[in-house]
Amino acid sequence: MFEKYVDMQQSSGASPRRKRLWIPAAATTLAVLLSLTACGRATPDAGHAIVLVEKPLFFGHGGVDSVPVQTGSVWIAPTTQTIDVSMVPERHDLRLNDLMTSDGVPLDFDAIILLQVTDPVALIAHFGTDWYHNNVEREFAILMRDQVKTHGMNETAIASTALDSIDQKVGEGMSRYLREAGLPVRLIGVTAGKANPPDAVKSQRIETAQQEQRALTEAQTKIAEDARKAAETSRAEADNAYRNSLGLSPEQFIELQRIKMQENVCLRHTCTFISGNASALVNTR
User: What is the pTM for the complete model shown?
Assistant: First the structure.
């Protein structure tokens, strides 16, 4: 509102006097509209929260708002910063190279840690937006290295029997660290992933496996040959016992076996046998 003076003529013909009138100020209305237009809205997605960082230009105290925006939307000042924080469990991957085992073999891991934020305001106020890289990643890598050192290459990379133990120990260490550091983050799980040995070790393992397979094949072949030899010996001993029971000489037994063979053939086909020195007859018709 602002003042505007208007000359008013009295009805008596006296000299004019000034009368003060109050009318809406267009400038004030325009200023209000501009201030509303400059304001923003904070609208978080499902599973997210928005932390407000107030930065007043003239009056008041700035800082992180103690109440995050988790549902719906709110109007905010144009100078207020909004920080989106995911409240659902999030996966963070970590590539680890050349982790030494107890027997001095370097292994590579693709480790995974699953974390969930529990208090977005405390997280941003005390640890900032890059809290994982600044406060979690290094500790995660150190714990992984310390645990891999306690196991050998075979149980870690070949048999994979040590991975469950590594996951458990690293998980316990990370939970303790998050609690002691005051990070408002909950550990969901840790996975060491598959260990990858160097190429030289892989080649040696492949060659060893081939040799083991070759030795196994030869052993199986020998077992088969020994079994066949034993079977043939047993059959010969059985035939000899049968011959002795008939009272036949070896030549007579062989002749008997020949006759049995011919008999088996002739059961399937028509046969003609010529004995002695007889000549074959040829039909000339």
Answer: 0.59
